[in-house]
């Protein structure tokens, strides 16, 4: 009889310890979760539930749902997304999940405790949207096209009733730009338009611009694809469009030009700077002033009478181009430095070439450049002297 009462006491003590989680290190059991079900399904989200029956007496057990696009029986280790419930209360629990893809996904509920992980069967859920939910986007016409730059953009026409995950513009040398073959792109999220100045394009290159947008229904490209060609950037010594030789270049468009080219051949004629030695106001020595100087001199002296340097260049025509002029002092100096000293073009050794700039101190003189050696500097000569000319043009 004593043995029987002792046995009852031991069973009671063991049950009490288990109930109060004492000696839990050897009392944790296998968890159990069953009956995963779909409660609601819409374009944006769905709701699933499961019966979390027991945690296996583990107060630190974790429970929740896992979702996967590719794995038909996802686990905690190979799922796309894992959703933990905020506590481990047993019973029927549910979770709302935002759709992140189209087509089918596979869901399971789980309970993880110290000794094991329990899963429900896999539940396949199909997104209720379709092709009508794919976004519609248009390409904006490229603008501000320069040597290495162009502004391109895309505009959202329709989001398909879903949040836009990305919208962008592709720039490619392929005539069918995609996200996989484009050298340049700009992308934004949750936007209706994207517009960007692309700064690292190649000069003198044909590009194609195309807009795209994406939501969970899919990736859509614009039907419109616009082509544009970046401007050619001429290097020093290259032949210019008029057949001259480029001796100066710049990226900015100040004065509406970027390059200067000089007539490639030597002119045997020599002539005075003007028909008299009188002073003219408004003449300048700087780069970009040769055209203005030439026009001012011709307007003051006229085109009748004898030949003179500015008149000759003003009336000069070559390869169908008639916008030549007499270079300013600094333009003539660049021609001397970048062509003559670099051996890129022949000039008359020891020849003196007129500029269109007047000597501001000795106004009866004008500046010239002697093409002789590396130490030659601009100097001035009386305007009635017969010197050489070399027409230039800017573009």
Describe this entry's structure for a reader.
The chain has four helices and 22 strands. By secondary structure, the protein is mostly beta strands. The chain folds into three domains: 24-126, Immunoglobulins (Immunoglobulin-like, Sandwich), CATH 2.60.40.10; 132-229, Immunoglobulins (Immunoglobulin-like); 245-394. Strands 3, 4, 6, 7 and 8 form a five-stranded antiparallel beta sheet that branches. The radius of gyration is 41 Å and the shape is rod-shaped. Residues 4-8 and 13-25 have low confidence and may be disordered.
Characteristics:
395 residues, mainly beta, Immunoglobulin-like, 3 domains, five-stranded antiparallel sheet, 4 helices, 35% strand, rod-shaped
């Amino acid at each position: 009889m004593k043995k029987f009462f002792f046995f009852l006491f031991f069973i009671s003590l063991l049950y009490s310890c288990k109930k109060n989680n004492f000696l839990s290190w050897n009392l944790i059991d296998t968890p159990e979760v069953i009956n995963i079900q779909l409660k609601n399904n819409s374009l944006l989200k769905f709701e699933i539930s499961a019966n979390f029956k027991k945690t296996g007496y583990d107060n630190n057990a974790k429970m929740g749902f896992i979702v996967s696009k590719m794995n038909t029986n996802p686990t905690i280790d190979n799922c796309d997304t894992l959703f933990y419930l905020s506590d481990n209360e047993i019973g029927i629990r549910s979770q709302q999940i935002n759709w992140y893809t189209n087509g089918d996904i596979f869901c399971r509920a789980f309970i993880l405790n110290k000794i094991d992980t329990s899963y429900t069967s896999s539940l396949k859920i199909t997104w209720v949207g379709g092709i009508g939910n794919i976004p519609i986007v248009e390409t904006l016409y490229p603008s501000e096209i320069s040597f290495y730059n162009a502004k391109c953009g895309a505009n959202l026409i329709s989001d398909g009733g879903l949040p836009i995950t990305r919208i962008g513009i592709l720039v490619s040398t392929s005539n069918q730009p995609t996200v996989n073959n484009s050298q340049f792109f700009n992308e934004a999220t949750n936007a209706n338009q994207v517009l960007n100045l692309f700064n690292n394009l190649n000069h003198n290159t044909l590009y194609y611009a195309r807009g795209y947008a994406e939501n969970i229904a899919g990736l859509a490209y614009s039907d419109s694809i616009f082509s544009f060609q970046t401007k050619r950037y001429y290097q020093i010594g290259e032949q210019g469009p008029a057949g001259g030789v480029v001796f100066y270049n710049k990226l900015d468009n100040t004065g509406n030009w970027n390059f200067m080219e000089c007539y490639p051949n030597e002119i045997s004629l020599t002539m005075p700077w003007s028909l008299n030695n009188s002073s003219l106001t408004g003449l300048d020595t700087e780069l970009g002033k040769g055209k203005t100087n030439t026009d001012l001199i011709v307007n003051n002296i006229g085109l009748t009478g004898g030949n003179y340097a500015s008149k000759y260049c003003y009336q000069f025509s070559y390869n169908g181009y008639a916008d030549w002029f007499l270079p300013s002092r600094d333009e003539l100096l660049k021609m001397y430095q970048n062509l003559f000293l670099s051996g890129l073009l022949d000039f008359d050794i020891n020849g003196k070439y007129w500029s269109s700039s007047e000597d501001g101190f000795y106004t009866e003189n004008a500046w010239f450049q002697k093409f002789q050696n590396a130490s030659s500097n601009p100097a001035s000569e009386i305007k009635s002297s017969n010197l050489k000319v070399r027409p230039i043009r800017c573009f």
